UniProtKB/TrEMBL annotation:
This is Simple sugar transport system ATP-binding protein. InterPro entries: AAA+_ATPase (IPR003593), ABC_carbohydrate_import_ATPase (IPR050107), ABC_transporter-like_ATP-bd (IPR003439), ABC_transporter-like_CS (IPR017871), P-loop_NTPase (IPR027417). Keywords: ATP-binding, Nucleotide-binding, Sugar transport, Transport. The keyword Metal-binding does not apply.
Length: 307
């Protein structure tokens, strides 16, 4: 796999810290007791997280739990104010997303950075266009870009009828998939997905989850941010639940069941209190309300998704 590793922009030598082939047990990205304050607001504290190659690490949590803050630190948008952040075992502090990208950490944001009216293949290469010819007459290598985009999308199992169609005409799920394939092609080692299924229906969520699994199969470390324990459990190897800025649960797949994960997310006691409150409202039959464990309708499994 291509790696984006190169000497850091501040001149530090990272050559001898690059893990050897086969050093699968070393995390690519690690947070140790990390935290972040925005002035007086302590958005995140005491967070431990490890991201391994070929594994999906899910970060779950309710609104305001600190999920976005966590990925902003890892993707170089913000800096941590407590603890340590390491890449390949070396403490880092990124000033820009470019520095994170140079270490192979790519982020697919929900509001995807695409140009809706440009064709799919153009968006695939946006900002990193292929060119041909010597300098004074250098021009875009359109044929090669189209062929490569087509090949890379197929490699990930993404079949689009026409790469000439404006990317804005694709569904939200398809656009997410193109963004994932793009990150893989440009050599990402860690792929951060910020709630990729939040705005999607059942079927499209299944399709996106399929490509999350495909990225893992290609050996990437995936950080999958989601509200949805069902989506997380379909693809996750490790689960970290944030609550009010701290890590409430950190467990491997073997250590936690979907039911327990859902309970953690729903907050069993809070739900009981809500049920009691609703019982005071006329017309709500509390016995008809779901238990915490039943919350969140199961969705189609990834394999059921349309390919
Ligand atoms: N730039 C900022 N300045 C001040 N406070 C912030 C800032 N960004 C986030 N916060 C606060 O930090 C806490 C965590 O926010 P964060 O956006 O990380 O949560 P989240 O888990 O991503 O929530 P959501 O699911 O709604 O996206 C919140 O209380 C939020 O108000
Ligand atoms: Mg958020």
């Amino acid at each position: 796999m291509t790696s984006m590793n190169k000497a850091g922009t501040h001149g530090e030598i990272i050559q001898d810290t690059v893990p050897e082939e086969g050093a699968k047990d070393a995390p690519i990205v690690e947070l140790r007791n990390a935290g972040k304050s925005y002035g007086n607001i302590r958005a995140l504290h005491g967070v431990d997280l490890q991201v391994f190659p070929g594994q999906v690490t899910c970060v779950l949590g309710d609104n305001g739990a600190g999920k976005s803050t966590l990925i902003k630190i890892i993707s170089g948008l913000h800096q941590h104010t407590e603890g340590e952040f390491l890449v390949d075992g070396v403490p880092v502090r990124f000033s820009t997303p470019r520095e994170a990208l140079d270490k192979g950490i790519a982020t697919v944001y929900q509001d995807l950075a695409t140009v809706p009216l440009m064709p799919v293949w153009r968006n695939f290469f946006l900002g990193s266009e292929m060119t041909k010819g010597p300098w004074p007459v250098r021009r875009l290598d359109i044929d090669r870009m189209k062929k490569t985009a087509d090949h890379e999308l197929r490699e990930m199992g993404i079949i689009l009828d026409d790469l000439e169609q404006p990317i804005g005409t694709l569904s939200g799920g398809q656009r997410q998939c193109v963004a994932i394939a793009r990150a893989v092609y440009f050599g990402a080692r860690v792929l951060i997905l910020d709630e990729p299924t939040a705005a999607l229906g059942v079927k499209q969520s299944g399709v996106v989850l399929k490509y999350v699994a495909a990225a893992r199969e290609r050996g990437l470390g995936v950080i999958f941010i989601t509200h949805n324990p069902h989506h997380a459990y379909m693809v996750g190897d490790h689960f970290s639940v944030l609550r009010l800025g701290t890590m409430e649960l950190s467990a491997s797949r073997a250590e936690v069941s979907l039911e327990e994960l859902t309970n953690h997310m729903a907050g069993g006691t809070e739900l009981a209190a809500l049920k009691h409150e609703l019982s005071q409202v006329r017309g709500v039959d509390v016995d008809e309300l779901p238990e915490a464990k039943d919350l969140g309708a199961p969705v189609a499994t990834a394999s059921e998704g349309k390919s």
